[in-house]
Amino acid sequence: MEQEMNSMRNYQEEFENRVAFIRDLVQNSGVAGIVFGNSGGKDSALVGILCKAACENTLGIIMPCASKRNFGEDRTDGLAVAEQFGIETRLIDLTEQREVAMKALGDLTELNAPAISNLAPRLRMMTLYAVAAAENRLVAGTGNRSERHMGYFTKWGDGACDFNPIADLTATEVFEFLRYLNAPQNIVEKAPSAGLFEGQTDEADMGVTYAAIDRYIETGEATDHDREIIDRYHRRSEHKRQGTAFFK
């Protein structure tokens, strides 16, 4: 595995440190293993690789939900990572659960686009925590630093976890790390997407590239256009990073 020449990080050292962090966490928590959502994307791929290296009893769950992409390239890519790195994999189709939830909630309120979009991530997290409770596992988070800065995650959905071994890595660094680990090329090259619908991509949704976001996070430099978008997303999503507000 060759190091990226232009990287500021030593990915062999990063790999060893993160694996040690996960291994210690598993041992100190007294759990039997780890479970994570295997979405077929870059973040879940890196988390799965790190967790498997630290804990043999690592389980990835593929959870397609309504979107054709979930059943197609996302499932294929998730299985490719699992096969290459020896990660146990299970699959559950959450489409029916989503339809039931939409019908029941539709009697309660008029669901708008954000409410509907957030159903799948929260159903997935419910699934992961049910498996974790049943099998004495920790839930590994798969969100990166760039997504967290932008608030590009679902509160109590993909933003929920027991630990996150890549939370400090920007999207650019995740890609570099995956290249270093020789992850499947399709995952390294594919456009980041939540897979909510056909053709959906993170960058198109936000109106700014991850390269621009990462440059702004690391250096404070951005075009006026990109800075306005990034600052707006960051400001409006502060409640997601703060968690629950408790009266004191």
Task: Name its key features.
single chain; 248 residues; alpha/beta; Rossmann fold; four-stranded parallel β-sheet; 13 helices
CATH superfamily: HUPs
Question: Distance between termini?
Answer: 51 Å
Number of strands: 4
Shape label: globular
The H-and-E topology, N to C, reads as HEHEHEHHHEHHHHHHH
CATH class designation: Alpha Beta
Rg: 18 Å
What is the architecture at the second tier of CATH?
Answer: 3-Layer(aba) Sandwich
pLDDT < 50 runs, ≥5 residues: 1-6
**Amount of beta strand:** 5-15%
The main pleated sheet reads as: 4 strands, parallel
CATH topology: Rossmann fold
Strand order of the largest sheet: 3-2-1-4
Q: Give the overall pLDDT as a whole number.
A: 92
Question: Percent of residues in helical segments?
Answer: 55-70%
Structural class computed from helices and strand pairing: alpha/beta
Q: Total number of helical segments?
A: 13
Overall tally of domains:
1
